[in-house]
Amino acid sequence: MSRDLLERGPELAGLRTAARAAAEGRGRVVLLHGEAGIGKSSLIRALRADPPDEARVLVGSCDAMSTPRTLGPLRDLTDAVGARLAEALRGGDRDEVFSAIQEELKAAPGTILVIEDAHWADEATLDVVRFLARRIDTLPGVVVLTYRDELDRDHPLTRLLGDLGHRDGVDRIALQRLSPGAVEALTAGSGLDADRVFAQTSGNPYFVSELVASADEASVPPTVVAAVTGRLRRLDRTTQDHVEQLAVVPFVVDAELLERLVDGAGALQAAEEGGILDVSPEGVRFRHELTRRAVVDALPASRRIELERRVLAALLDTGLADPARLVHHALAAGDVEAVVEWAPRAARDAAASSAHRQAAEHYRVARNYADRYPLGERADLVEEYAIEAYTVGLGHEAVIAQLDAVGLRRELGDPERLGASLRWLSRFQWFDGRRADAEVSARETSAVLVDAADRSLYALAISNEAQLALLAHDTARALELSSRAITIAREAGHAGALSHALTNYGTALMYRGDLDGMQQLVEAGEVALAVDDIEDAARAAVNLVWGLLDQYRLPLAELHLDRALEVTERAEYIGFVTYQQMEQARLDLARARWDDALAMVDPLPDPPHARCVALTVTGTVRLRRGDEGVDEALDEAKRLADHLGELQRRGPVAVARAEAALLRGDPAEARAIARPEYEDAVRREAASLRAELGDILRRSGDDDIHIPERDAFPAAVQARGDWRRAAELWREAGAPYHEAVALSESPEDADQLEALAILDRIGAVPLARRIRAELRERGVRSIPRGPSTTTRGNPEGLTERQVTVLRLMAEGLTNAAIADRLVVSVRTVDTHVAAVLAKLGVQTRQDAVRAAAELGI
């Protein structure tokens, strides 16, 4: 093994093993991670230089740019892949890229696709990795992701890593620092004190190599920047100039660009021999990003601006079609005209590939120079930015920008464009928790577009009003308006308007408890997907799952939630992803998976509607387990629900607060909380809330309720007082806490004891305590004592469900097999396995099993 790869034998062997398995049809994802300078790139170079069984190794690198290039590391591979994938990458069509890259890997078994420095990746690239990872067991290839460990929780890569978890087919390779012995080997013959070098570098391979390479007569530079610049200064002046010029380019400099920046690759020989640059047929790049960064950091500002301007001019001369690179250098060079020209192109390129964060950032840059654009173009740019901001969950920024866009549309005097902009404004205002403003904008939208030549615009305007009515649980108005919109949209032949209206109509039916709404929502999703309208498809899917959860049709809700996640993962619609996380939390709450529910809402989301749901879930979990902080969570949820002013938020908060009052033994307070919202639910035909609030009232001594016989879901049956049938339905749904509540109404001791056993099993302490007290009052003997504490002593902090998963891992079960055993989704098991490994401080399943044996679990 070379000096560059000391103590890396097992890691290189792991990569080779994954490649051989892929060649046999067992694809793998390898997550290669560690701190900067730890040797990730060196390991990839070694693999590329000597691939197992002559496997094809494709290496694409992410660049340290101000805003990442859309599909950057993949577009760099266009000369090395088949024609279909190359064309798809150049065009940026998301679905075509997905399909083509899957075909590419299948056509060349054993291919190793490496995405280096994924901590700088754009979201479109990360989505490609996510797409491949979910199908890796059917692909004969390896996807290797290298990245630095220092990621914050909001980093886009963090979310991808969370999605991957520790699922089957995913390997983690964590590179460690070198031992003192390895440092001694690297410093041999240099005259340096190995112990001193180890103390100064802590065994980081890059730092060690830089200090060794730059040492002069056994003196060690105090910092790596000093080491790099010291070595650079030993080169001749011309080579220094060339190296500094290349340092401001954060990507591979290809032959065409190199020719314009330096006097040919031969002029870089000294820098290559000195270990500063890597020169290959593909181009020139710095041997390590830290070296490039050190050179840049040492440049005076005036010198850097001069070098950036030269790169920008050279890129324009080459006719480069990558606007993101041009924007990066234009900003660094202070070339406003170039920024004005290229930022909108970069934004639209990113948006076309669903790299919405990058699109928003480029639009934000363009908006800084808004007065440089003609009025019409300025309005388009501002609105496009608002749409991208909304897409990534920045509701308030979207409102501010769209208000600006609407003002510009008024100046331009085009009614149809104004109406379209007002509709967007209404949507953004609602998303930002400004319902009254949203309604004003919606009414103006319809008034402006009533005579529009493009009837689909009017259909969308009416459907937008229907959506607002729906969100307010004004079910009759929502049905009337959406029905009109459906008719107009079908006549106009506009799929987007039709899907939007069908979603409103189907959801309104679901509110009434009419399951015919499911078919409308399914059709809405199919219509949208047929024209690649991911936003409307995602909205239909979210609403379908929400309606099923409202009626506690949990198996169906879980099935459709998994399908819905596949839709939204095709594009970064953060708002919908957040709602789906809330849906998963509601599902976990209903199934008494307390820890899972809390994990899904931590941290609390910022958008007000989602935050209200998260607080309600948090408060309810704490209430049912007997944890502290119930009132704090539910009080904040109530304040937010009152501000939002919609029954869909007020109703669930009232259910939770009234439940808390009942558990405290205060039925009068429960009635006072539930009665106003129950009456509102009756007026608005909100079937599920009517049933839940009605049941609370009945159990608190208020019989003045009416639940229609047609409502056959479990909450409605229980609200009518049929506790035995309700218990059966709750059991079938997989809602143990609700089953226990129903059984607790029985006059029979056996049913009460059965309820107690359920509550003890799921850790529902307050209700279990109340049932024990009632049984004692009735003179029942041999009442089970129950667990002595709600959490068994466990120094590793594993939850009960995580311990169960760990035991099944020890049996050798895959995540899919564990999911079947526990009757949960594979995604849920992935999350549990990741949490188990993190809490045990291990990297592999095998290590976790060994740790469990040592702990006696």
UniProtKB/TrEMBL annotation:
Molecular functions (GO terms): adenylate cyclase activity; ATP binding; DNA binding
Cross-referenced CDD domains: LuxR_C_like
GO terms classed as biological process: regulation of DNA-templated transcription
PROSITE patterns listed in its UniProt record: HTH_LUXR_1 (PS00622), HTH_LUXR_2 (PS50043)
Gene3D superfamilies from the UniProt entry: P-loop containing nucleotide triphosphate hydrolases, Tetratricopeptide repeat domain, Winged helix-like DNA-binding domain superfamily/Winged helix DNA-binding domain
Record SUPFAM superfamilies: C-terminal effector domain of the bipartite response regulators, P-loop containing nucleoside triphosphate hydrolases, TPR-like
Keywords: ATP-binding, Nucleotide-binding
GO terms under cellular component: cytoplasm
Domain HTH luxR-type: from-to ranges: 791-856
Protein name: LuxR family transcriptional regulator
Species this protein is from: Pseudolysinimonas yzui
